[in-house]
Design goal:
Blueprint lengths: L17 H36 L7 H33 L1 H19 L5 H4 L2 H29 L7 H29 L2 H14 L1 H12 L6 H13 L5 H7 L1 H31 L5 H29 L1 H12 L2 H10 L3 H19 L2 H6 L7 H10 L1 H4 L4 H12 L3 H19 L9 H10 L2 H6 L3
Helix pairs in contact: 1-2, 1-3, 1-5, 1-6, 1-7, 1-8, 2-3, 2-5, 2-17, 2-19, 3-5, 3-8, 5-6, 5-17, 6-7, 6-12, 11-12, 11-13, 11-15, 11-17, 11-19, 11-20, 12-13, 12-15, 13-15, 13-20, 14-15
């Protein structure tokens, strides 16, 4: 499985011009921005709004925030379920159709959140309905990522797959940027009473507008030729696909993908979600100031991800990812003391550095995971590796960090928690085969010959 061993006669490169590839990238990013805007809007609201609106009877503010984060975690539990369902049918019917369905589901559920009565109006029905809608939102987002990145990865040339497929990843901080920007405008222009009373709802209602735009753009692209070929073979030869087939043929690939995802996911939610809690409760920074700092950091993150994707095409997937794991292990030890200074420039530097460390791991994930699995089960494979991990990683990270802070009154245990997570991911990188520049046709041929699992288990 070397990177350039394909014969000229084989169609190893996707038959798409750069202009067509850019169109695919835009379509993929459009929906991803929409869906992650809505997902991260909930993350910020869990700290800034929901603790007060839906959990007013908590004994302490820490308890209310933890309750908000628990409903936030429901979305992460739903994500692997969505990944399994969307992966199965995405491998069968195509990436495009499932992406169109996911954007509608997440849009409807997010809009409905903005219409929910408060705890004071309907009691425990309010957080109960919030949990249901959060589950639907998480289910839809669980199917989004795999389809979006594969739509690009399967259209991309082998030599630059890392760069092109990193663009959907950059749509995630862009969605977060958009969510943070909307909340910043609302919180800075409205009084605290108006923001908590009705202003926060506007951010959720705006999802209806951007869902329509994202859905329309996604109607303008088609699935990659390599997928269409693979689907014909699955039908003609009755080949297996889906979750069971992935676990049967590529268990090592699935678990390696989970290990790669573990620290990246924890680091991200410590930086973008728990930092809000830390800055508000410990540093006592104003909400509007926090959101403005995050706004700047998200923009820098958005610009960094494609650059790291290009770097993975030049240096390889493994060294770039390993750098992210090793540097990420240090973040908690210096970032929280930097935040403790209360200096806005230093706080911004702490958050931005964390997101840059994160980009070293995050940018290469689509190309790495796409190169792990053959086309007939790729959607299922990448969705499992990416989404299942979120249950024990990103969903719990803000809860664990908040609980550690409440228990010990120090950021050191949180830093140690992140260090342990990065050690797990570093081990997964060591187990990873370098696949920079490999043709996805080679992956499919190895799968057809029954040699792919052996090759995936070897190290370069």
């Amino acid at each position: 499985m070397s990177s350039t061993q394909s014969t000229p006669a084989r169609r190893e490169e996707p038959d798409v011009k750069e202009s067509g590839l850019k169109k695919v990238v835009v379509a993929s990013m459009a929906g991803t921005v929409v869906e992650w805007y809505e997902f991260f809007l909930y993350a910020a609201a869990a700290t800034l709004v929901f603790a007060t609106v839906f959990f007013p009877n908590a004994e302490t503010e820490f308890d209310a925030i933890i309750a908000g984060f628990l409903t936030y975690a429901v979305g992460f539990v739903a994500r692997p379920i969505g990944g399994i369902v969307f992966g199965h049918f995405g491998d069968k019917y195509g990436r495009k159709q499932l992406l169109q369905l996911s954007i509608i589901l997440v849009g409807v559920s997010t809009f409905a959140m903005g219409c929910l009565p408060t705890f004071d109006q309907i009691g425990y029905w309010a957080p109960g309905l919030l949990v249901v809608l959060r589950f639907i939102q998480g289910f839809a987002v669980g199917g989004e990522w795999g389809g979006a990145v594969l739509l690009v990865a399967e259209h991309s040339p082998s030599k630059s797959r890392g760069f092109w497929s990193s663009w959907p990843q950059s749509a995630v901080p862009m969605g977060n940027l958009l969510a943070t920007g909307v909340l910043f405008i609302l919180s800075s222009t409205l009084s605290s009473e108006d923001f908590l009373g009705w202003g926060w709802r506007i951010a959720f209602w705006l999802s209806a507008v951007i869902v329509i735009v994202g859905y329309y753009i996604r109607t303008k692209v088609n699935d990659a030729p390599i997928f269409l070929e693979a689907r014909k073979e699955v039908v003609a030869e009755e080949k297996g696909y889906g979750v069971l087939e992935v676990f049967k043929r590529y268990p090592r690939g699935v678990f390696t993908a989970m290990g790669l995802r573990f620290a990246e996911n924890i680091l991200y939610y410590l930086v973008v979600t728990f930092s809000i809690t830390y800055l508000r409760l410990v540093v006592e920074t104003d909400t509007s100031r926090i959101l403005l700092l995050l706004l700047i950091a998200h923009f820098i993150h958005f610009c960094t991800v494609p650059l790291v994707g290009k770097l993975s095409d030049r240096l390889g997937r493994r060294p770039v990812y390993m750098a992210g794991a090793l540097l990420g292990a240090t973040w908690g030890f210096f970032a929280f003391p930097m935040m403790d200074t209360g200096n806005e420039v230093i706080i911004l530097a702490a958050v931005t550095i964390g997101l840059m460390f994160h980009a070293l791991m995050y940018a290469g994930q689509p190309s790495i995971m796409a190169e792990m699995f053959p086309t007939r089960m790729r959607y299922s494979g990448v969705s499992l590796g990416y989404q299942v991990t979120s249950i024990v990683a990103g969903s719990l990270a803000p809860i664990i960090a908040t609980a550690l802070l409440q228990e010990y009154g120090s950021s050191t245990p949180i830093a140690i928690y992140l260090l342990c997570a990065c050690a797990i991911t570093a081990f997964a990188v060591l187990m990873l085969k370098e696949t920079r520049g490999i043709s996805l046709h080679d992956v499919d041929e190895a799968d057809a010959k029954g040699t792919a699992d052996l090759l995936a288990a070897s190290k370069k």
